[in-house]
Amino acid sequence: MAEIVALKSTPAEGPVLAVLDKGILRLTLANPPANALSIAVMEALTEEFERAASDKAVRVIVLSAAGKVFCAGHDLKELTAHRADADRGRAFFEKTFTACATLMQAIVRNPKPVIAEVNGLATAAGLQLVASCDLAICSNASTFCTPGVHIGLFCSTPMVALSRNASRKQAMEMLLTGETIDAATAREFGIVNRVVPPEYLNQTVTKYAEVIASKSPLTLKIGKEAFYDQIEMGLADAYAYTGRVMVENMLARDAEEGIGAFIGKRSPEWKGE
């Protein structure tokens, strides 16, 4: 039976749910209709990603959401309420965007692959959440935008993740116009990997997760870390770095086992070492 865990949150903000089944940890934003990233929700998500990082039972993480909106971004009502503070909200705003940066980096730096399962609108920090995941699969009913420019608040932090997925021109198109793009355009821009009918979304994501979960967890950890490290380097540095990574990977027990299994035409038995 799948293990179900309700993460820390307040009743007003709704729970973030975690279900672990056969190595696949499914995290669900369960605060419709907006599934907003309040401080409580971001901290709960970060806590769960950090826990999963060291949990050998977790092989792959899927991030999904309940309702018609995947995530509407930051909780603007929560932010606005702190304008009445003595510092006009500065301390709370800093806390919010620090929590957001911590969450996004907890996804990128997590040794476990993270797949976004999107069925609905992902806007502002919600799009940032999708773009921060290693893979993203969405329904053809999904839409995406960075609309901050409409309300006088440029989507500067979502820009970090967006500009690492889409080309510069595509990212700037979204950031400067604030217009919504459909699922097909999101795939063209590189924000999502695949677009499927809603009725096949969960099935497709689960298939991806199961395929990835069948691989050596050590190899996945090594590869994901190396991917994000080398992509920020110059060409020569990237080759030097990944060459060292390959050597260490070759010396790992799982590489020896995997290559031996391939040569011997048998299934490998991963030990994660």
From TrEMBL:
<dbReference type="InterPro" id="IPR001753">
    <property type="entry name" value="Enoyl-CoA_hydra/iso"/>
</dbReference>
<dbReference type="InterPro" id="IPR014748">
    <property type="entry name" value="Enoyl-CoA_hydra_C"/>
</dbReference>
<protein>
    <recommendedName>
        <fullName>Enoyl-CoA hydratase domain-containing protein 3, mitochondrial</fullName>
    </recommendedName>
</protein>
<comment type="similarity">
    <text>Belongs to the enoyl-CoA hydratase/isomerase family.</text>
</comment>
<keyword id="KW-0809">Transit peptide</keyword>
<keyword id="KW-0443">Lipid metabolism</keyword>
<keyword id="KW-0276">Fatty acid metabolism</keyword>
<keyword id="KW-0456">Lyase</keyword>
<dbReference type="InterPro" id="IPR029045">
    <property type="entry name" value="ClpP/crotonase-like_dom_sf"/>
</dbReference>
<dbReference type="GO" id="GO:0004300">
    <property type="term" value="F:enoyl-CoA hydratase activity"/>
</dbReference>
<dbReference type="Pfam" id="PF00378">
    <property type="entry name" value="ECH_1"/>
</dbReference>
<comment type="function">
    <text>May play a role in fatty acid biosynthesis and insulin sensitivity.</text>
</comment>
<dbReference type="InterPro" id="IPR052377">
    <property type="entry name" value="Mitochondrial_ECH-domain"/>
</dbReference>
